[in-house]
Amino acid sequence: MLIPTERLILRRFRASDAPVLSAYRSDPEVARYQSWDAPFPPERAVIAVRNFAAGSPDRAGHFQYAVELAAEERLIGDVYVRLHDNLKQAELGFTFAAPYQKRGFASEAVGAVLDRLFRRQRLHKVTGECDARNVRSAALMERLGFQREGLLRQQTFIKGEWTDDLIYGLLATEWWGRA
User: Total domain count for the chain?
Assistant: First the structure.
């Protein structure tokens, strides 16, 4: 299961990815709007990578794509997909190491995953959710064609505070109709 793009390879996680996963998830700026706290200990990364590698992108449940910069053969981020039991809907999320942000890698990787979900797996809808303060994640989803479907006020209690969540959705017909 590989998804090649112009600059990236999306693949299954390997045990050797654990130290890099630990490093970028330990960055306070990367972890700021995520469910985990920094630092992300190496032993937790080993368990996470093991669990990521055990999943299947074609079965209901969670799957995490490792995003590798092809030219450097280096892990730079990950894209999360939770495929619903009906195999027609999914939720996604993404995390990228700080040095690889603002360079189009997240758009390229998430776009490749969306293409797989809509074209190969024939999903009807993909949703995404982010902290309302995370304007870069919201902008990325909007660039990829997601429509903002809602604002959930004080929806999530995380890191000692209540946060608002933005809800986004993208239909297969909208993905196929992109220019």
Answer: 1
Detail the DSSP E strand segments found in 47-179: 61-69, 74-83, 89-96, 125-131, 147-158, 161-171
Q: What is the pLDDT of residues 122-149, one digit of tens each?
A: 999 999 999 999 999 999 999 999 999 9
Q: Which two tokens stand for residue 23?
A: 């490093």
Residue type present at position 71: A
Handedness of CA 133, 68, 105, 100 (dihedral sign): positive
3-state SS class at 64: strand
What is the value of pTM for the model shown?
Answer: 0.95
Give the ranges where the chain is alpha helix by DSSP (H).
18-25, 28-31, 42-54, 105-115, 135-143, 172-176
C-alpha radius of gyration, the chain, whole number:
16
pLDDT in tens, 84-110: 999 999 999 999 999 999 999 999 999
- Alpha-carbon distance of 20 to 98, in angstroms, equals 12
Which domain, by its residues, includes 18? 3-176
Q: What is the CATH number of the domain that holds 115?
A: 3.40.630.30
